[in-house]
Amino acid sequence: GNYALPMQGFRDFLKKYPASELADNAQFWIADSYYAQGDFESAAAQYDEVIQKYPKGDRVPAALLKRGLCLIELNRSADGAVLLQHLIQTYPSSEEASLAKQRLEGLGVKP
User: Fold this and answer.
1) Cα-Cα-Cα-Cα dihedral of 18, 3, 103, 67, to 10°?
2) 87 DSSP assignment
3) N or C of the chain: less Cβ packing under 10 Å?
4) pLDDT value for 55
5) Which region holds residue 48: left if phi is over 0, alpha if psi is between -120 and 50, else beta?
């Protein structure tokens, strides 16, 4: 339940080791902390940082999924659906793509 301290630790890590192979993980966990607190606007922005700063990182599919879910939570379902469809097309065999398909079906959108 206490997110402030870990988030600061991840930010400090990113300042000290911005080129680390674990930097995308730190950025992702910052985003996930906002998501867990229900701050979907901040979470979406932080997931976008993962996608933009670490495009070849292994956290990108998860960041796309979670950013799409944030947009849906923010009543931007059309934008969220487009992002989830992009995830499915770009990473079709990922677990995140399966989750995105389920979410789209739940929205009544064809994946």
Assistant:
1) -30
2) H
3) N
4) 95
5) alpha
